[in-house]
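=== RUN LOG ===
request id: a7f3
mode: sequence -> structure
chains: 1
length: 507
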Amino acid sequence: MVAEALSQLERHQEALEACNRAIESDSTSTTAYREKSKHLHKLKREREALATIERAIELDPDSEAAYLMKAEILASLRRDDEALAAYDQAIQLDLGHFHAYGEKAEFLASLHRDEDALATYDQFIERTPHIFKGYKEKLFFLLIERKRYTEALPTFEQCLARHPEMAQAHDWQGRTMWYLDRYEEALLAYEEALRLDASDEDLYVGKAGVLSSLKRFDEALTVCEQAIQLAPAKASVYKEKAGILTRQKRYEEALSAYQKVVQLDPNDAFAYEEVGDLLCQLGQFADAVKAYHQALRLMPDFLRVYQSKAHALEKLGHYEQALATYNKALQLHPNNGHLLFSRAGVLKKLLRYEEANADYLNAQVSAQAGKSDLLLAACCIIAKVDLKKVADAKARLQAAGKEISDEVIEAEIHLMYQEQKIASLKSSPLFLPVCLFMQEMQEWSGTPKQFKELLSTHFPDDLKRLPRSPARLVEVVKEITPALQEEGIAVGLPSETTLMTLTSKST
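=== RESULT ===
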């Protein structure tokens, strides 16, 4: 039918017109009305779609497909109870066919009525316990969609009781045990599955994953090779191998495996991301950027890849390109605190400190909203740029004729801080007496009590401003040690040596 071909091309208006022509030619065609309702539904013309599917049902009241279409349209109109009734009518028309049960269960799950969805799967299993499909879909819902691993145990036990010789049943047992971190039991399940069907490469992949979780990496890789021999053109077997090699930090081998994945499946955005990550691990940032570009071409809203690509560009010193990457990501996710924080770091590299501070503030506000990420909020506060210190550092650097960059400015700020700290330490009433004494003695050692007596003899006025306790005097010496070292005086204190020692470098 022309309408079906146009539907495959997402050309729904043209498909609708084709349906109308078919109806004009044969006004009793159930298929034409059903197809017409589908295209009206795709065009968001729900009320017309509902009227059209009702006509299809009038013409063929035993059409399961028509009731399923009606249920889908009613669900779009938020007429949930009527939608469920339509699903039930479809089920009654073919009690042994899973499709209607599955559609109803998915709809209930979308309404967050998980228990009712599970009851629907159970309804099919009770009616057709000999059919594996019901068990499989229920397990998929529990394990993959809802991660209710423990609750899956009775279902696969029920399944195994019915299908002990079905490899797929043991496969799902292995998956469940794996998710529950019961790796030895998972391994036994996969070995039984492979005994029943040694030609299924996916079972080898599952077993390899369990062996990897047990850190039996060499065995896992051997099993991967068995899977590759069975399916040398299947991307997923190479992906499992690559993941195991990555866990072993065998990055070059892992990269080769992931490159095989993208060769076999060039539309796998996640595989391109892994290629980029491994290239970064190997320091090949330019090639990593190319891999991330491919991932974003396939999945333009892949947030994590924007961050990885920007990071690789930063490593290359391409800060403007990194900024452009963050800007694009923030167009998609304008309130993402981690993106704002990372962009602020790039703005700092470009000496655009005011803009960086604005991003740090926005990231902090985002992180503190609902106390969602208090660590990020703290990092924003710490990372905020002190604009006065930056201005002072730039002035010093310009006066010295030095090249200015963010790294140089940070180093200068650190130097300024150290200078201020040393100046503060030199203001201690103990600093000058020690320096003067060491000009005369060059080297001295003794107990803290003898050190106090020395000060009392040579610098009685200064001693009045110092602690009376010899132990506390040692603490003051410890505090001013950096300033003394700058003057060429090495200090050894009782915690490190038997006696307190002072030595001038000129000795």
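=== NOTES ===
The radius of gyration is 36 Å.
The chain has a mean pLDDT of 93.
=== END ===
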